[in-house]
Design a protein that fits this description.
Number of helices: 21
Largest sheet: 6 strands, mixed
Strand content: 5-15%
Bound molecules: adenosine-5'-diphosphate
Oligomer: single chain
Distance between the termini: 56 Å
Shape: elongated
Number of strands: 10
Length: about 625
Amino acid sequence: MAKKQNKPTLAEALRNNLKAAKEISRVCPGLFSSLVTANALESLLNYIFIFITARLLNELVSFGRAGVLIRWGVLGAAAVLIVEMTVWYFFRRYQLLEEVSREAIERLYMEKLFGMDFADLDKHSTHDLLAQIRQNERSAGFGFGAVPGILSDLVYSLTSVFGGIGLTVTLFTSKVTSDGPLKLLNSPLIVLAAIVMLMGISYLIGSLNKKGETVRTRAQELSAASNRVRDTFSKLGRSVQGAADIRLYRQERIALHHVRSKDAYGPGGSVDRLVLSNVGVLFGLSQGGQMLFTGGAFLLICLKALGGAFAIGSVTQYAGALALVNHTISNLFGTAGRLTTNASYLRTAFSFFDIPNAMVQGTIPTEKRSDREYDVEFKNVSFKYPGAETWALQKLNVRFKVGARYAVVGENGSGKTTFIKLLSRLYDPQEGQILLNGIDVRKYDYREYLDLFSVVFQDFQLFSQPLGANVAGTDEYDPERVKKALEDAGFSGRLSELPKGLETCLYHDFGDDGVSISGGEAQKIAIARALYKNAPFLILDEPTAALDPIAEADIYAHLGGIVGDRTAIFISHRLSSCRFCDEILVFGDGKIVQRGTHEALLKDINGKYAALWNAQAQYYTE
Ligand code: ADP
């Protein structure tokens, strides 16, 4: 749930909504210019109609000249036609672009997520924040998606009010010509009193309407919480895994109880109580106020007309314009209410978009060397995860020999994966330095630095896209190189069975013609992707965890040839597979507790490596 914060002022509300509009128009150009033009012209159309009708009536009751009548008629028809056509052109454009903007807003979130520091993406708080924003958009209809609608109403109402005022100025300035008590209406004091009274009533109507709208908005917010509960449980009902648990433990009892107790719409629910509260009275009073305004305005118009201040046509002009002003002022207040409510939801959205990229991004390009002489060194490196109390890595010192093979072993939680995440700069250490050819890696261009590493993490990600594109990371690739990488990763047998070869789509997310692949096959494709990238460092975190013993033996038998002249680092629990490595780094409690070749490490019979080795050997000898 959103933290209770102070309500935004109208100025902040406007600022927030306009800031969001600016962001949206960056990815959806033309939306707001169409919105402003369509709404402004649409509201002016009413006044063109009122103005022309008044001129026609005035001519009819005064001189009745056919030429003048025709001129006004033609001018009116042409103006209405041109404006109406322009309105519809921009309105259709706006409607279309509003649809497009939904996808564009989605793109804004994606852009932010893709560009975010890994450390922030890895935080629960970031995902909670995003989930909350999505719920606000979906359930309550507030946030970025609400901005075009609210700004449309705002532009329409503001233009209407100003247009109406423009058409009624002469009501107050024109003078009563007949003698008698009506002459009093020419007094500036009376004019001022009439204006103040009409504005006062407008303000009252607006405030009542805004209060009513606030109740409506509150109901929308309350229903958001209810929708969230309903969504969660209906999703649970649809999931096959959930369905099994529900049947075995009769969990529907908890689900239904929860839905009922949180149901805002049900009898006696929070929305129900709100709707039955004073909202009806508020809207009723607002309507009454509108009648009062209309009555007062009509009285003034009729009295001035009676005193000869203007002709009958102008009576229709003033009456029509003031009725519109009256109506739109109350809408304007309602829109201001929605603007303010949306601004507080936008605060939450901006707290996501404003997450800074705190990671230092250098500018030095990495050397492009064909001899792969990239010298990487950890110097006294210590690292703690954000918010964690304990060090995940402490005072690490390692220098990788170019072209050598390293194994990283150790118990769960000893810091092996964290070590790799630091090496591939997903995180930066709090203490010490990681150096590339003697220079702190933070000084290098981030993208270029990442280009030096091919890593297969345990939780690697493949996409529901063609196999070739998955391996190459792009749609344009060299098919022969992709096939070679797949072959080296042990996937060639399966590749020959695939109906469309490299063009075969993995998984079924975008259609039925995809293929299902097992965990082991996915791991082979991920290894092939790392090989295709052909970076100077090849890092495999538990590369064979999902493979069957035959496939595993096959990969390890060929690993030497596959790695070639790259510097390779393998994290593995299977110690027998590390024997071919030049050096084994044994991790314990975030430190390197032993290092050396397999044979040398085994000689230290009290060491951690020997303990791990013996623990595994036991399974095979028993
Ligand atoms: P290993 O790969 O050796 O199993 P890890 O490097 O994954 O160990 O973890 C080292 C320590 O850091 C563990 O105590 C683990 O709980 C902690 N850790 C790992 N990932 C995170 C994270 N994203 N946030 C906080 N702590 C983490």
